[in-house]
Amino acid sequence: MSTTNAGRGRRRASNGHGNNRNPSPPPAPTPNPTPGSGTPVPRPSRRRGLARLVGPRHERHVLTTAQLPALGLPVGDDGVVIGVDAERNPAVLGLFRPEPLDVAFVGGAYVVQIIALRAAAIGARVAIESGRPQLWSAMAQAAGGAQPCVTVHQVGRLGPQGPTAGSPVLVVRDCGARPPRNRLAPAAWQTTLTLLPFLDPAQARQRIGVGAGLVGIQRVSPIEAQAASSVLSLPGEDEAALPTLADELTLWSTRKSRKYVLLTPTRAEVGLLGPPRRMD
Question: What is the CA radius of gyration of the chain?
Fold first, then answer.
């Protein structure tokens, strides 16, 4: 039994393609996505030429766990650079800390003036208590310029300085070998540097031993060297070397370490203060 289909005959498609028996319907228009509807917003496609641009390829800088101990970073202390050590590395004094610091220096005013100039250069305020203001006035004017960052005061006339972390203070006491008692109360971010032109052996422990967190010594006599060695527990070679130090050399000592530092003044500092010297 056969069946017939009235619509079986061939008909020409309306779009002109005679062999397209079942033409695909046109694509439905894509509705514009509404914010918050959850429908992703299509992004404009990159241009084909830019999509293929790739930067230079390098090997990744990767260290294994075994290689980490060999990694060294050039990170040092912050503070005032006062010269170079025996290895020609910069010697830095960390003067300003969140607690009070007392420094004793046995020697001439030249090194202390260099320290004061460089402390002012890094933003610290310097207050000088001295019985010989003429020694410090030129340096104070050159350091401060139009700003009073270095001030000179008569002995006993220095008032509270109000140090802060953003404005630390260096107090220089140039009051002779037997300075009077310091009237300033200890304060955070305030360092007191006491300049001693020579070391009285009878008062060595009081001047450089009790309370001094850092001690600097220039060339001294053998008797002074013996007293300093006894107070600071210096070895015999340091005691023998102290009476022979050059004008540029200073021995800096803490309770844990000691280091010889060669002073390296800049051309501007030499023009203002002259060459390095031990005596004032």
Answer: 39
The answer to whether residue 64 scores a pLDDT higher than 60 is: yes
pLDDT tens-place string over residues 212-252: 999 999 999 999 999 999 999 999 999 999 999 999 999 99
In angstroms, the CA 135 to CA 277 distance is: 14
If we measure between CA atoms, which residue out of 247, 254, 258, 259 comes closest to residue 114? 247
SS3 119: helix
SS3 215: strand
> What span, in angstroms and rounded, lies between the C-alpha atoms of 253 and 39?
73
Tokens of 146: 């139009």
Q: 211: which residues sit within 8 A by CB, 6+ positions away?
A: 102
- For 152, the enclosing helix (H) or strand (E) is strand 150-153
Q: Is there a contact between 120 and 150 (Cβ–Cβ < 8 Å)?
A: yes
The DSSP secondary-structure symbol of 228 reads H
Unique residue bearing structure tokens 């498609």: 13
Compute CA 279 distance to the chain's CA centroid, rounded to the nearest angstrom.
32
Q: Token digits for 61? A: 């800088």
Q: How far apart are the first and last CA of the chain?
A: 136
Beta pairing class for 125-130 and 150-153: parallel
Please state, in angstroms and rounded to a whole number, the distance separating the CA atoms of residues 141 and 162. Answer: 22
Q: 0.85 cut: is pTM over it?
A: no
- Map residue 144 onto helix, strand or coil: helix
Amino acid at position 7, single letter = G
Contacts of 99 (CB under 8 A, 6+ apart): 188
* Torsion angles phi and psi, residue 194, rounded to 5: -100, 120
* Whole-number Å distance between alpha carbons of 253 and 177: 19
C-alpha to C-alpha distance for 107 and 84, rounded to whole angstroms: 18
- How far, in Å, CA of 75 to CA of 202, rounded? 42
